[in-house]
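Need GIY-YIG domain-containing protein's 3D structure for a figure. Predict it.
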Amino acid sequence: MAYIYRILNKITKKCYIGETKCLDVTRRWNQHKKTIENNKGCCCPALRDAVIKYGIENFVFTVLVICFVDDRFKYEIEYINKYNSIFPNGYNITNGGEGGGGFQGKKHTEEVKNKIKTTLKKKYIDNPELKKQLSERNKIVLNIPEVKERMKLGMLNSNKHQKATRTPKTDDVKRKISEGLKKYNNENKPIKIQQYDINNNLLNEYTSISEASKKTSITRRVISLYLREKTKSTKGFIWKYV
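Structure prediction for GIY-YIG domain-containing protein:
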């Protein structure tokens, strides 16, 4: 598992969005504090300068998303955009998604930045179906008692500016997270749908709403609304579950 986190300045309300795959997420917060205190190796000089100016006691560390390791970069980019945390509005100095050292040795062109924003907006931000799925998956993990306790302990230690107690994930916690996500995935497998013309003649069958949207250029939202009987207009087509 991986985490997307936020470091918020309580005074200015500016923030830094980061990602980590540390087993103990609070360890990442401690790493930030240590590198800032030692004034070396900090991947974000804007955050470092702000902590030096306002004091570590005026910064709060919170977890925004728990996700799979392979998904962490896309969420980092999405939340940097959501919180508008690019310097000078915040403390991020890139759009995210680089991994392994942040901004050091890397620089995006304006063209690349625009492509990243456009791709994310199309695939994630403007996709209510996917946003709902991701939200539900996140709730499953956060509702596991052991995960709740780890989060609570980590946040309490961080807010008190103490060294967070390291509590590596046990095999039991990992198993429960895996079982919870597998159950969700099994209960939410893609459902086949069929496309008909206005005379109720079958035109096509698709493995999912996403496939139908991709091949017909009709948005997922419109197809979903029709299937839930919340709209009567789908560009002259009728949709049914198989």
